[in-house]
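Hi V.,

You were right to ask for the full record rather than a summary. Here it is.
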Amino acid sequence: MKLETIIKEKQGTIVDVRSPEEFRGGHVAGSINIPLMEIPKRMDELKNMKSPLVLCCASGGRSGQAHGYLAQQGIECFNAGSWLDVNYYQS
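Predicted structure:
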C-alpha cells in the first residue's frame, strides 16, 4: 500500500520523532511525539500502537534512523520524511 494512502485514510499511527520543543512549534494533527532518543525505552508503547507506524521529523533524517531501528525490531513502519509532507497528505 502507498504511504500517501495510509496517511489519507488514517490506517496507521503518525509518530513524530522530533524534540518536544520542535513538536510544540507545529505538528501533524493527531500525531504522537516520541523523540528519537526515547524510542528504545518506549518500545512497549510503540508495539501497541495501530500499525503501520508513519514516522516523521523535520527533514527525514531522524525518522530514517527510527525506521531502521524499528524495522530491525519487527515493527511495520514507514519513513515519511518531513512532518510538513505528512501534514499535506493528511489534509
